[in-house]
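Tokens for chain A. Residues wanted.
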């Protein structure tokens, strides 16, 4: 196995240059559309070409995120964009939308694809499906432990996150932002719902907590144990941070580069206190080693704040209308950023010493004064959130050089021959015929000095071989011209490196139009036996339950067991009726079971519908993110199901707030079988919590209700309508069923 890849983020060209110069093996970036970080600056077409050339010049791979779900009316545009990337030599695409992945594999078979973490890559069966599709690499879920990663046997490249922000939702599969911010996390517009304040309720009563940011994780940092991750057998180590500054990207890349290189050189592997402090200054919400090193509860979460907290700078001694007096525990410099414990912050433009004199810095242990330009009235602690001296030091990084070998031949009667060789190219240029020296001969040392004088070029000579006759004359001017010419030509060759042959196939999507005269069918997800009985009594066509014992008790052709959203698939459900929630279960059971796909698979376009139907799905459930206009674009397609009423599951998490807050970090508890829990936001919206064997499911605070649009959906050809129940009773369920059936009958009787 080759040396592990260090993969760095870049939200703009400055960050990309910082990543490359500080030792990244690969960089991932996004375009102006179709990337999961729409609020980064990102790269337009010209900037993307520049970025590709720059990376390839230094032998760095460049991956582009096309990792959003893509609506039907965007398919042509996204394929044109991917073709642009392919023909301009991007090394790989990072993608989420399964339908689009399938389409791209057919149209651009030589385009390398990496499955984004949002594909929910957490078990071997899912990885196996991706490999069969032609996906080269899977970005693993951040929830997997080191032992779980080691136990994955599928022969596919595996990429893991080693540093940066964490999503509290498993694999980042979250509908919170889409349903409550009207900006889709699956489309790069996440509003950060997990970073907002919430209160925990037990049986309707508020539980006292130490903080109110109950879904906010600390920042991942695995630097101290990076050797253990290297030894796990993964291919790539990924730093999160396309929204971060070039200084953050540069410094974090530099640290991990040094630690990775130390590992391979078998040098002492130690992380200094200063390095950790510098990381904290650049960005942190406190640091955690994450699930990969079995950090749970308080080791994972910072519920006191969701902001960058920096490091403690000192304590506030006095506050007046004009000045703030601070006792310093760390040095304070003009242009540093600071934040007080009430979340007010500022950039220190004017700094005063204890005598009231304007100064550029005040050393730790002393008193400093700053202008009270934010109207601060009370505070105890002040933190440093930007260190200007650290930023200046980071920006002094050295120029990265590409090592080349140089061969020079100078034989009397033959033309001067110079060859530059890198790891992929060998280019040669010839000069004039070598003659004997009339006066002073050109020495070996002079020739070597001149040919190695690569100056501001991106190259450095690692090995120079010179074969020359004695007493010869080599024109130094000509030697310099050849060197400059070879440097230019090699630079151009590297910039236009082609990672894979460009193949573009003409494809025709299968026609999946159907008539819209199919019979009405109703699907209902139930949460208890009473709801299930009501559905049976009302002749509901498909009944789903996540309670396997309940499924077995009432099992018939219309009752389906909903598989777990996070599963190692060790349980055997062969020949069962299954509502599958993730790719692993689909792959394992698609040939021997009655399969319906759940809305968690994010189906929003025809290509995804086609893909899942080809995997023998009886019905394909659309994502709740599709609106009426998007559904209309799908046409009359048989065997798709639309959730038309119920509580959307916003997220599933490995984190349990009840364990951490009530049970004080215990990994196992039975609280959720005894009590009813919920989160309440600042607007008093209540989000029910449902626990399922160490997974926390958070439901929407209100029901999705599209019943008024039933006539339109029927006109579009949809005939299977899904209801997801929470606490509805018999009468409510029967009324919902009647509304759907009445709409269908009324349409047919027109």
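Reply:
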């Amino acid at each position: 196995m080759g040396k592990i890849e260090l993969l760095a983020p870049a939200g703009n060209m400055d960050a990309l240059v910082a990543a490359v110069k500080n030792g990244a093996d690969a960089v991932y970036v996004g375009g102006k559309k179709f990337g999961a970080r729409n609020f980064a600056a990102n790269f337009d077409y010209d900037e993307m070409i520049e970025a590709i050339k720059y990376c390839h010049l230094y032998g760095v791979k460049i991956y582009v995120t096309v990792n959003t779900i893509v609506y039907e009316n965007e398919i042509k545009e996204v394929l044109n964009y991917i073709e642009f990337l392919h023909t301009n030599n991007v090394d790989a695409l990072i993608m989420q939308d399964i339908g689009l992945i399938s389409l791209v594999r057919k149209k651009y078979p030589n385009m390398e694809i990496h499955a984004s973490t949002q594909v929910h890559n957490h078990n071997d069966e899912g990885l196996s499906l991706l490999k069969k599709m032609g996906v080269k690499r899977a970005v693993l879920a951040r929830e997997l432990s080191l032992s779980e990663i080691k136990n994955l046997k599928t022969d596919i490249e595996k990429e893991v996150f080693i540093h940066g922000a964490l999503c509290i939702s498993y694999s980042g599969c979250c509908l919170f932002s889409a349903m409550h911010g009207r900006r889709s996390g699956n489309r790069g517009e996440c509003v950060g719902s997990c970073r907002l304040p919430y209160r925990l309720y037990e049986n309707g009563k508020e539980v006292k907590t130490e903080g109110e940011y109950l879904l906010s994780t600390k920042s991942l940092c695995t630097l101290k144990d990076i050797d253990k991750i290297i030894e796990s057998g993964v291919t790539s180590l990924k730093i999160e941070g396309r929204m971060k500054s070039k200084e953050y990207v540069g410094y974090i890349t530099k640290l991990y580069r040094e630690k990775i290189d130390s590992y391979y050189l078998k040098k002492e592997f130690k992380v200094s206190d200063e390095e950790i402090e510098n990381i904290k200054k650049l960005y942190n919400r406190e640091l955690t080693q994450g699930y990969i090193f079995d950090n749970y509860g308080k080791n994972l979460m910072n519920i006191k704040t969701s902001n960058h907290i920096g490091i403690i700078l000192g304590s506030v001694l006095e506050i007046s209308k004009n000045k703030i007096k601070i006792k310093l525990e760390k040095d304070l410099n003009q242009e540093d950023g600071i934040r007080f414990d009430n979340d007010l912050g500022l950039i220190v433009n004017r700094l005063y010493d204890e005598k009231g004199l304007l100064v550029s810095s005040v050393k730790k242990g002393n008193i400093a004064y700053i202008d009270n330009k934010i109207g601060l009235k009370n505070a105890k602690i002040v933190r440093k959130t930007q260190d200007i001296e650290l930023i200046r030091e980071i920006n002094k990084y050295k120029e990265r050089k590409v090592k080349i070998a140089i061969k020079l031949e100078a034989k009397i009667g033959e033309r001067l021959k110079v060859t530059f060789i890198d790891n992929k190219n060998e280019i040669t240029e010839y000069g004039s015929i070598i003659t004997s020296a009339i006066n002073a001969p050109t020495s070996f040392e002079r020739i070597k000095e001149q040919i190695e004088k690569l100056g501001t070029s991106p190259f450095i000579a690692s090995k120079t071989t010179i074969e020359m006759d004695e007493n010869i004359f080599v024109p130094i001017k000509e030697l310099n011209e050849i060197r400059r010419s070879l440097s230019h030509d090699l630079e151009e060759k590297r910039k236009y490196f082609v990672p894979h042959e460009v193949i573009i196939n003409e494809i025709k999507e299968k026609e999946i139009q159907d008539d819209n005269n199919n019979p009405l069918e109703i699907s209902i997800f139930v949460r208890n036996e009473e709801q299930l009985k009501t559905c049976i009594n009302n002749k509901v066509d498909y009944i789903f339950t996540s309670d396997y014992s309940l499924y077995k008790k009432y099992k018939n052709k219309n009752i389906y067991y909903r598989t777990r959203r996070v599963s190692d698939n060790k349980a055997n459900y062969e020949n069962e009726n299954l509502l599958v929630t993730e790719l692993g279960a689909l792959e394992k059971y698609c040939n021997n079971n009655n399969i319906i796909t759940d809305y968690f698979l994010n189906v929003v376009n025809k290509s995804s519908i086609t893909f899942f139907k080809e995997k023998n799905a009886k019905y394909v459930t659309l994502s709740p993110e599709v609106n009426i206009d998007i559904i209309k674009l799908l046409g009359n397609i048989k065997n798709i199901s639309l959730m038309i009423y119920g509580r959307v599951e916003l997220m599933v998490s490995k984190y349990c707030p009840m364990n951490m807050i009530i049970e004080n970090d215990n990994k196992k508890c039975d609280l959720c079988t005894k009590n009813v829990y919920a989160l309440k936001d600042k607007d008093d919206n209540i989000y029910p919590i449902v626990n399922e064997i160490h997974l926390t499911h958070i439901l929407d605070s209100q029901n999705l209700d599209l019943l008024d649009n039933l006539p339109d959906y029927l006109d579009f050809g949809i005939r299977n309508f899904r209801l997801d129940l929470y606490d509805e009773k018999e009468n409510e369920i029967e009324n919902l069923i009647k509304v759907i059936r009445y709409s269908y009958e009324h349409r047919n009787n027109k």
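The longest strand covers residues 459-468. The chain is about 25% helix and 25% strand.
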